């Protein structure tokens, strides 16, 4: 092969390569310059589970029913809880999940009777130990006493309203029974 042929082949290959680069530059990028650019996550994206904060309660609504613990195929949820004095609602006092075991199957979310579990949109979490336990109650703990107090007041008000309704109904019934019969 002559010297000239070698140079011509090299130039052709360079032009072809530059053409491919130019074409790709006009296309929409399929990768991100992470971590400078954050990804947009789809609705269906699944990540670690967390407790939902309900607007009306200003906290989560885990009633420690243990349904999620029973259904979890990875045995990675630990919950404690029960009745709290003065309120009707049961409350969880411990909610830990070992995410090293969680397969994000979503069964716990599906079974929860109060809809208080959801997937987070986290995508850059990593565990560095064999156990990777999250305390899901941690973000709520500081507000728990306040919630219980509010719940006590609201339960007491509800009970008083029910008692008042019952008393009014009994009074109305008694008044009807006392009414004298009128001859036609
Ligand atoms: S998503 Fe599945 S594996 Fe993970 S905690 Fe819930 S039930 Fe268990
Ligand atoms: S199923 Fe829902 S309410 Fe029951 S313990 Fe699990 S998170 Fe709490």
Secondary-structure map with pairings?
Blueprint lengths: L2 H24 L22 E3 L15 H5 L5 E7 L6 E9 L8 H5 L5 E3 L13 E3 L8 H35 L6
Antiparallel strand pairs: 1-4, 2-3, 3-5
The structure holds iron/sulfur cluster (SF4) (2 copies).
Strand portion, in percent? 5-15%
Which CATH architecture of the domain at 49-146? 2-Layer Sandwich
Relative helix content: 25-40%
Largest sheet: 3 strands, antiparallel
CATH class type of the domain at 49-146: Alpha Beta
Radius of gyration: 32 Å
The computed structural class is alpha+beta
What small-molecule ligands were found? iron/sulfur cluster
Largest sheet, spatial ordering of strands = 2-3-5
Mean pLDDT across all residues, rounded?
92
Instruction: State the low-pLDDT regions, or none.
Output: none
What is the terminal-to-terminal distance?
130 Å
According to CATH, what is the topology of the domain at 49-146?
Answer: Alpha-Beta Plaits
Total beta strands: 5
Coarse morphology: elongated
Report the order of strands and helices.
Answer: HEHEEHEEH
DSSP summary: helix tally: 4
Task: Describe this protein's structure.
The protein is an alpha+beta fold and 184 residues long. It has a domain at 49-146: 2-Layer Sandwich (Alpha-Beta Plaits). It has 4 helices and 5 strands; from the N terminus they run αβαββαββα. The protein has helices at 3-26, 67-71, 107-111, 144-178; strands at 49-51, 77-83, 90-98, 117-119, 133-135. The strands form 2 sheets. The chain has a 3-stranded antiparallel beta sheet, with no helix packed on it. The chain has a two-stranded antiparallel sheet with strand order 1-4. Strand 2 (77-83) and strand 3 (90-98) form a beta hairpin. The longest helix has 35 residues, at 144-178. It is elongated. The N and C termini lie far apart (130 Å). The mean pLDDT is 92. Bound molecules: iron/sulfur cluster (SF4) (2 copies). Residues 62-68, 79, 92, 111-114, 116-117 line the site of one iron/sulfur cluster (SF4).
């Amino acid at each position: 092969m002559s010297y000239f042929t070698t140079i011509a082949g090299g130039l052709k290959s360079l032009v072809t390569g530059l053409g491919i680069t130019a074409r790709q530059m006009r296309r929409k990028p399929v990768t991100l310059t992470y971590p400078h650019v954050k990804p947009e996550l789809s609705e269906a994206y699944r990540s670690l589970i967390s407790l939902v904060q309900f607007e009306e309660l200003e906290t989560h609504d885990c009633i420690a029913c243990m349904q999620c613990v029973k259904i979890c195929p990875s045995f990675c949820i630990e919950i404690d809880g029960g009745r709290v004095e003065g309120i009707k609602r049961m409350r969880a006092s411990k909610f830990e999940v070992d995410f090293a075991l969680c397969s994000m199957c979503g069964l716990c979310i599906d079974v929860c009777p109060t809809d208080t579990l959801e997937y987070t949109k986290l995508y850059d979490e990593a565990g560095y130990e064999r156990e990777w336990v999250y305390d899901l109650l941690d973000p709520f703990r500081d507000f728990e006493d306040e919630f219980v107090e509010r719940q006590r007041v609201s339960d007491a008000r509800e009970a008083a309203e029910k008692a008042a309704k019952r008393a009014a109904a009994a009074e109305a019934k008694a008044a009807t029974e006392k009414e004298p019969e009128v001859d036609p």
